[in-house]
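step=predict obj=Recombinase family protein n=194
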Amino acid sequence: MSEVVGYARVSSFGQSLDIQQDKLKAFGCTKIFAEKRSGKQADSRPELQACLVFLREGDTLVITKLDRMARSVLDLAKIAELLNKKGVALKVLDQAIDTKTSEGRLMFSLLGAFAQFENDIRAERQADGIAKAKQKGVAFGRKRALTPEQCSRIRTLREEEKFSVPQLAERFNVGPATIYRALGVHGPDTSTSS
């Protein structure tokens, strides 16, 4: 048997859930998940996650406003996609959205398109930012473990004083792979005695 399930959220402990819960009960919700928690991502809200797991095909999820469930268009699109896969309808009371109707489904399709657009713009901006930073000489990735001077010293110790790779690794406080890279060797070198 399908259920009408409510979800209510406020972002701080000083706020009250009463108004949302009263509206959800008046609509006929038989079970209500509620939490006092902020969070931009849905996965940082345990009651929302529990609600999404609880919902079954044919159920209806009821919320008072879209921003109670999702904090961004992208977040909303992810949740809407999950609800759609599970065969769960969404009803938003204050904004008159109901995915059981063709208008409600259209609204969600548009929101999904906006979410993808927002994601594409963010990725494009990020790529532009990285390109500009590289032009200015900003280095990306992990900081080098050894300076060029240390690499030179490692090669000298290895060639002239016959230090082993483990001895060099211990002396420079790095792993053996870092020593091999400093020596320009890809793996254990057995040509030089330890």
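step=describe
Confidence is low (pLDDT under 50) at residues 189-194.
step=end
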